[in-house]
Design goal:
The protein has about 400 residues and is α/β, with parallel strands linked by helices. It contains twelve helices and 13 strands. A seven-stranded mixed sheet has the order 1-7-6-5-4-2-3, with helices on both faces. It has a four-stranded antiparallel sheet with strand order 10-11-13-12. A two-stranded antiparallel sheet has the order 8-9. Helix 2 packs antiparallel against helix 10, helix 3 runs parallel beside helix 10 and helix 4 packs parallel to helix 5. The structure holds pyridoxal-5'-phosphate.
Length: about 400
Amino acid sequence: MRMKLSEKGLPEKAVLAKLESELKGDFTYHSGRILGSMCTSPHEFGRHVYTKCLEKNLGDPGLFRAATQLEQKALGMLGSLLSHPNACGHIVSGGTEANILALWAARNLAKNRRREVVVPISAHCSFDKAANLLGLRLIKVKLNDRFQMDIKETEEAVTEKTVAIVGVAGTTGLGVVDPIHELSEIALAHDVYFHVDAAFGGFVLPFLEELGSNVPDFDFRVPGVCSVTVDPHKMGLAPIPSGGILFRNEEKMRSISTSIPYLAGGGAEHTTILGTRSGASAIAVWALLMHLGRQGYRGVVARCMRLTSKLVEGIRRINSVSLKTNPTLNIVGITSNELDIESIAGELRRTGWAVSLFPSYVRVVVMPHIRPSHIEHFLQDLKETVEKLGG
Ligand code: PLP
């Protein structure tokens, strides 16, 4: 219901009481019911640092030099996670902004009349937004039988009009990693920009590798990769908003630079979409990377993957449903040959589970807020749902 701004304000206590009741309708992470989101309850320490730094504005680096340096230090650590400590970039508002920045750079660096971006059909809808904003056309490439961007189709899609190729390391739907090496070779052969969207996978794949899994290269180790999206507000446990964009070199980032003559004594340059932007986010990312270190994140990923295996085993034991594919990351697609997937999703929603519905499957993301008891409860409800629907 819409309200008018009243003449006289209410005491803080009264507003807080109202706030509590107003927010009752939201799902909460700690209930374990949020099974379809790539976000999670932010780490306590991240929240603490974030609230300490609320007034920091990275859009005005002349005023907030120290905060700007902390953003750079956070980027150094993210860069080292992605095999390139000297990468440059920003902590931004999320994966959407990061992907827009990457295509903006690609478009500005491209030769005249290049207007097409080759993406897999599994690419996140932020690329549709980016294309719309930047006057680009997406050429959507089919997937192979492992739900990865098909290489032959990609080769056929790349022409003299191509501005960029996008590969995804951890797709939104199934957490699949595209064949980044092969895509890089195509990009290098055609001299086109290559962006990797590791918004989700960027905080999982490096730790899976450290845990001994066989993880394909997806980051700056791959020579054609020009930029990578990696989102701290997904598996990085950082408060929303915090996304990350990393460019291989300054030249790529400078292609989207705008000078802001009235700030920082005339020296300010922005290479982001936003002007005023959250220093608290960047500093909280810095603090969490410092605090958790590789060991801390490895532990988070190991826990999520153990629970993913528990979920997978449970799904295998339920008649009439199956896995869309074997999960690479902590993302599980549940499908059915016999039952209508929309009905399954609808019934799960009615029993209080916030799962995501994709065209032929239900997606569960096993985020750090999920506990073993949540998985057990969900599997029980999934079984009952399937039985109720006649499976
Ligand atoms: N890229 C991928 C692979 C995603 O899965 C998502 C969101 O789920 C995004 C980009 C967009 O991120 P955000 O919602 O933070 O803008």
